[in-house]
Specification:
With 476 residues, the chain is an alpha+beta fold. The chain contains 12 helices and 12 strands. Strands 2-1-12-11-10 form a 5-stranded antiparallel beta sheet, with helices on both faces. Strand 1 and strand 2 form a beta hairpin. Helix 3 runs parallel beside helix 8, helix 3 packs across helix 9 and helix 4 crosses helix 6. The protein is elongated, with a radius of gyration of 32 Å.
Length: 476
């Protein structure tokens, strides 16, 4: 094309140039606006620091604080090279089984024989409590009542299964019903009936028929009764049958029902000072003379877990079975607890063996994988399971973990929230770890046929190991 164009083409070229400049300007404005929008969208969000879970001392329940959930670390491209294999192979563990999951996804990060079903020791209380919360509900209360007997001068003390009932004004349990309150109602009702004018209570019938079958599981060691960690399982009881109502560990009797009857007679005072105590049952439709109610199940669950109270756990297990209509003995617990866990939480219970509610038996059988699946649901507060999360012992702070994870292991103080277990043939630990990198892990570790001290120390060290690894935890 020549350097100069014909005169009649020049106006057209000027118009095109003008249009081009306008288009360029519009595009520039749009581009700048879009860039600003993208930049704004990419601004980082300030992280919200997670609070350290806090519980009161072991005897202060229920725990009112809802535990915060730390933000899980993103890990789509995480290279997992942090090994705890040496810790999992420690001699103190003896026979080891264990599983670790990433709580928000359920992904298994670490596993050693996690499919093997073994004795759980007191970690069984987590299964019992989960079942009770689903079947009974957190607000359920247990009633102890007194009704008129069939003969003149007779009253019937009817046990409803409340092992926390206080013989005096209080005991180790929280917000308990008391024999003093019950006896006060009975004395008032007795005096208000003209037929009883001047007539003392001559017979107190003790009705503990709500629970059936053996009161002591045949696979349990009687040393738990004499040394004071476990009582006979009866529907009528005071103070968990402790000789010292305010002590966690205190010798238990061979006849909790009679001990409860004596406490009631004492609370009645002179109106029943010469009364005879006899075993029996109340007549259907007998007129009520008084009743008291326990603390709610939510309180009792947290007590049973935090203190690892065997008798309280057995009470919850029996009441769950009764509510489901499957029986009221040890034999009913297999059906009651497994059906509650399956029907309410969708868990595969086909291989569970449930002999008791406390975990004292060597015959109980649960796997580490099952426990971590359940703890994923507890961590997510499925149903009423947040009650358990808020009641679990906390490392170096509360409950049965208040004296563990000290010294070199204190790096996890407040970051490990777990249920402990110790019987002669097993040490166990299972729960939730808020790892150093912000990842939430669920774990279950079994140390079988280990000594108590060596087993606990090795379990604690391994738990510290997974805390440090977090989302980088390797299965190698």
């Amino acid at each position: 094309m020549p350097d100069h164009a014909p005169a009649h083409h020049r106006p057209r070229r000027g118009w095109l140039v003008a249009v081009a400049w306008v288009a360029f300007a519009v595009l520039a404005v749009v581009s700048v606006g879009a860039g600003a929008a993208v930049a704004s969208a990419q601004q980082p969000t300030a992280a919200v620091p997670s609070a350290t879970p806090t519980l009161g001392p072991i005897s202060t329940l229920p725990v009112p604080t809802r535990r915060p959930q730390p933000t899980s670390a993103a890990g789509a491209s995480t290279v997992r090279t942090c090994s705890v294999n040496d810790l999992a192979s420690a001699a103190g563990l003896a026979t080891f089984q264990g599983t670790v999951r990433k709580a928000d996804t359920g992904e298994i990060l670490f596993d050693r024989s996690g499919d093997t079903y073994s004795r759980t020791a007191s970690v069984m209380k987590v299964l019992t409590s989960s079942a009770a919360l689903a079947v009974l509900g957190p607000d359920y209360r247990v009633t102890t009542k007194v009704v008129a007997g069939s003969a003149p001068g007779t009253v019937v003390l009817v046990g409803g299964g409340d092992i926390t009932l206080a013989s005096g004004s209080s005991n180790i349990y929280n917000n308990t019903a008391t024999m003093g309150d019950l006896a006060g109602q009975v004395k008032a009702a007795w005096a208000a009936d003209p037929a009883n004018a001047g007539v003392p209570i001559s017979t107190i019938v003790l009705d503990s028929s709500l629970f059936s079958g053996d009161s002591w599981q045949s696979s349990w060691d009687r040393i738990g009764q004499t040394e004071g960690s476990t009582a006979e399982v009866t529907a009528l009881m005071v103070d968990g049958d402790r000789a010292n109502p305010t002590a966690d560990t205190s010798p238990r009797s061979s006849d909790p029902v009679s001990r409860a009857g004596q406490a009631f007679q004492s609370a009645l005072g002179s109106v029943a000072s010469g009364a005879q105590l006899v075993a029996g049952t109340a007549l259907p439709g007998a007129s009520a003379l008084g009743s008291v109610q326990s603390a709610p199940v939510s309180t009792m669950v947290q007590e049973a877990i935090l203190r690892s109270d065997n008798t309280e756990a057995e009470m919850l297990a029996r009441l769950t079975a009764i509510k489901l209509g499957v029986g009221s003995s040890f034999a009913s617990l297999q059906t009651a607890i497994t059906s509650a866990l399956h029907d309410n939480y969708g868990l595969d219970v086909s291989n569970l063996v449930i002999v008791d509610g406390s975990g004292l038996s060597n015959d109980d059988a649960v796997s580490a994988k099952f426990l971590t699946t359940l703890f994923d649901k507890i961590n997510a507060r499925v149903g009423n399971l947040g009650v358990i999360l808020d009641g679990l012992p906390v490392a170096d702070q509360t409950g049965t973990l208040s004296y563990r994870f000290t010294g070199a292991n204190s790096v996890v103080d407040g970051k490990v929230i777990a249920k402990t277990g110790s019987i002669d043939t097993a040490n166990t630990l299972a729960g939730v770890v808020h790892a150093a990198d912000g990842t939430t892990l669920t774990f279950a570790f079994f140390s079988l046929d280990s000594s108590i001290d060596a087993g606990r120390e090795a379990l604690d060290s391994l738990t510290v190991g997974i805390y440090k690894c977090g989302n980088a935890l390797s299965n190698n």
